[in-house]
Design a protein that fits this description.
By secondary structure, this protein is mostly beta strands. The chain contains 6 helices and 32 strands. Helices cover about 10% and strands about 35% of the residues. The strands form 7 sheets. The chain has a 6-stranded mixed beta sheet with strand order 10-9-12-17-14-15, with no helix packed on it. Strands 21-20-25-30-27-28 form a 6-stranded mixed beta sheet. A hairpin with a 2-residue loop joins strand 1 and strand 2. It is globular and about 70 Å long. Belongs to the multicopper oxidase family. Pfam families: Cu-oxidase, Cu-oxidase_2, Cu-oxidase_3.
Amino acid sequence: MMGMKKMRFLFEVLVPALLTGMLASMAEGRTHYYDFVLKETNFTRLCSTKSMTTVNDSFPGPVIRIHRGDLVYVNVHNQDDFGVTIHWHGVKQTRNPWSDGPDHITQCRIQPGTNFTYKVIFGEDQEGTLWWHAHSDWTRATVHGAIVILPTQGTTYPFPKPDGEHLLVLASWFAGDFNEEYEEYLSNQTGTSFDDIAFTINGEPGDLVACGGETTHRWLVDYGKTYLLRIVNVVVNSELFFAISEHNLTIVGTDGTYTKPRVTSYIMIAPGQTMDVLITTNQSLGHYYMAARQFVTFDPSITGFNNMTATAILQYRGNYPPPDVPSFPINLPLFHDLDSGLGFLSLLRSLATPEHPVNVPLNITTRMFVTASINKVNYTFEGTEVSHFAASLNNITFMDPTSSILLAYYRHTSGVYTTDFPDYPPSYYNFTGDTYPPPMSVLATKVKVLNYNESVEIVVQWTNLLGQGADHPLHLHGYTFYVVGMGRGNFNNETDPKGYNLVDPPERNTITVPKNGWVALRFLANNPGVWLWHCHFDRHLIWGMDTAFIVKNGETPETSILPPPAYMPSCAVQSLIRLEDFQDSVELFNEINVN
């Protein structure tokens, strides 16, 4: 009798409790721990050996692989000789800006010989491919890696499960000592360029460069299978075309969200973006080049750009005579093919299913019209007034403080930033024309403040100031946004909104503002914190094409910023920035126009 009672207790009480706990654990996800060690490592490419900063001695760096709903802690040990921060690109970091990573914005640098642990909180809806990278100076050129977010355990993809998957990281390769060359570039007041000399696919430039070939990346596949290929563009200053010879690509996801399947023979992918594509291996057994080359949108008369094509090889398994040369993708667009590059931007749509819904804000409470420009700025350098190339949003060239904006906001510290980033540019003109006002911008640290749950629409207009117009891939930290509209020419606020896609617009964290055009974004400001918004061409970022959004707390603890961790890297130096309110900026702009 006692045995029967024990059995009954076991099955009626303990087993359901255990099952409930297991299900709760599955719903909450697992916790993963990583150690990242930053230090110098030697690599040989293009017939030359050099030392460069890496994570765990690898280029690209380690892959973070998790399931949807999981939590990640990364302990970063800085064994290099300069400070660094790490950003988790596309990760929403819900209520946790403390671990977002941009230098000067949410933290100060992890100093040599110290460490800092990041708590990486993914959005509950995030699934697909994201990535991580250094967010201090241009260190991300060599400090980066992919993040793979698999479906929640027990669920699957919104398309037939692939037979396998593969990851490709497209990156820049610089000659010489990167850090020394970068410092020299910053000290040069003439605007001389600092450019990569090659691109790499999974760390290798491929067959078409000096001393290439032996280490070219190879992907071994079986005939008749369907593979999920995850592609990440971590290149410093270039958009890229990518194609696989004689194989179509079916796009099924971008930036950690799913899309309606779109079949294409090539993709155009901007720095900061990820793309998930399906490929079916249905061609003759052989070797096929996977190739990436730059999509160039600046003046075509400029010839001094990186015109190298990176290659890797898709290689079928089996018994067949290997070809002398792999097949090359003849459908890979040429460098200046604007129609192929800009035409690709409107191809994608959100999946928009009950399992992966679309929630486009409809009742807009905050509207912004923002111009993205290349300017000039005057400032004092070593006692002399000099003019230098700059970049701006609404004519404001963002100047980094020497302390953290997030910490200043959280502690109510004044003098670090002002809250008057303008909703509109100081003047209107033919933004895409060849005649423009004096291209001087204003140096300031201005941010935009949003109330919790504001419905935001931002129209970003490309400009041709200085005749320096090129695409601008803009990335928003802490959020994804819906790309509800895009077009050529100057935005028309009466006719263009009529063509907005409010049904299934693509959801991105990085979007290209097209040359001679505009793009319209919408998002709900429901993630409190301080979030950087910037061009993902690092040259334009350090020139000042960025600002930050401060999203206020909601009315409950669950809609408020999490408390800071017990330890944050210290900010030893206070900000020395001379701040101006917006009226001063307008008066200065008008004075420049008059003179």
